[in-house]
Automatic annotation (TrEMBL):
PANTHER family: PTHR43054, SCYLLO-INOSITOL 2-DEHYDROGENASE (NADP(+)) IOLU. Residues 4-123 form the Gfo/Idh/MocA-like oxidoreductase N-terminal domain. One of its GO terms (molecular function) is nucleotide binding. Residues 143-252 form the GFO/IDH/MocA-like oxidoreductase domain. Belongs to the Gfo/Idh/MocA family. This is Oxidoreductase-like protein. Pfam families: GFO_IDH_MocA (PF01408), GFO_IDH_MocA_C3 (PF22725).
Length: 334
């Protein structure tokens, strides 16, 4: 089977990682690079001389390239919806970096279009495809009745220094659909939805910064089974806390919510016990998700498309709901 000829929108580090890791699967070829500036597209393409991708500064031209089967979109959040809509409308599979959309209404429109065109739309949540994250999920029965969980992702952004100087970088700009909740926060939310399903209620306590956006915050999810999940995400401080799941029989722990090195089981009935359940982590940390994206596209696995659509809907319902409740409004919202 010929490789999936991939076009990319966005030329930042995440696109570089996705492309370089996806190429190692043998399932992809880099067919096109889009950037608003020719020199930026050339600089990105120069990293992959063997691929010889076409270069575009026009989205219309990229959409019209019949040789491109799929497009990976990793542009600023504000542009995800319109760019995905255009590529899906052109009959291309779309791998859309998180957050796929700002609202569930946007997500409705994108999936309806994808199904009408018989192409795949999938949101790129790399961590839930990691082998050790899957081990964590499979190990949930060990804890017995769930009593709660705490999931954490705090990573200081150098752009916060710009905020402290009175500037408004895009990542902290509501006008660009920015803020910590829809950045690092999506990692812990996506993990919670994957592990426990969609909660009954969600309440967010944001750390609002000078730009008006959230620099971080704490999100409390309540579940009908009677347990709570506390999520902490931040781009204004680092956290070194593990993420843990608590049950009547013991505790499961991972050192980080993404790039999971190991999974530790601590049996409550055996004081001081620690059992390592995880395996070796894939060092190319986007390879596992890229391989699954390729499989879904090649096999036209609509069951998995629907499965990940349900997951994306669970995530966006949380983010949209708590954003609006806290006045973290994006363009066009009131």
């Amino acid at each position: 089977m010929a490789p999936i000829n991939l076009g990319v929108i966005g030329t930042g580090w995440i696109t570089d990682d996705y492309v370089s890791h996806a190429l190692t699967t043998g399932k992809f070829a880099l067919g096109a690079v889009y950037s608003r500036k020719t020199e930026t597209a050339q600089a990105f393409a120069s990293k992959y001389p063997a691929q010889k991708p076409s270069l575009y500064t026009s989205l219309d031209a990229l959409a019209g390239d019949a040789a491109i089967n799929a497009v990976y979109i990793a542009s600023p959040n504000l542009y995800h919806f319109a760019q995905a809509k255009q590529m899906l409308g052109a009959g291309k599979h779309v791998i859309l970096e998180k957050p796929a959309a700002a609202t569930e209404k946007q997500l409705d429109e994108l999936f309806a279009l994808a199904y009408s065109k018989k192409v795949v739309l999938v949101e790129a949540f790399r961590h839930v495809h990691e082998a050790n994250f899957k081990i964590l999920k499979r190990s949930l029965p060990k804890v017995g009745k769930l009593l709660g969980a705490s999931l954490t992702f705090g990573q200081y952004s150098s752009r916060f220094q710009n905020v402290l100087r009175g500037e408004t970088p895009a990542v902290f700009d509501l006008k660009m659909a920015g803020g910590a909740l829809v950045d690092l926060g999506v990692y812990v939310i996506a993990a919670a939805v994957e592990l426990f399903g969609e909660p009954e209620t969600s309440v967010y306590y944001p750390i609002k910064i000078a730009t008006g956006a959230d620099g971080g915050g704490t999100l409390v999810l309540t579940y009908k089974e009677g347990f709570n999940v506390v999520l902490t995400a931040s781009k204004v401080f680092n956290s070194y806390a593990p993420s843990e799941i608590y049950g009547e029989k013991g505790t499961l722990s991972i050192p980080t919510i993404t790039d999971v090195e190991t999974v530790t089981w601590m049996d409550a009935s055996r004081k001081g016990s620690r059992e390592e359940l995880g395996g070796e982590r894939e060092k190319l940390n986007l390879k596992e998700e890229a391989a699954e994206h390729a499989r879904i596209i090649e096999e036209a696995d609509w069951d998995q498309v629907k499965r990940w659509e349900t997951h994306s809907r669970g995530v966006v319902r949380i983010t949209e709901g708590v954003r609006r409740a806290n006045g973290l409004l994006f363009p066009g919202e009131s």
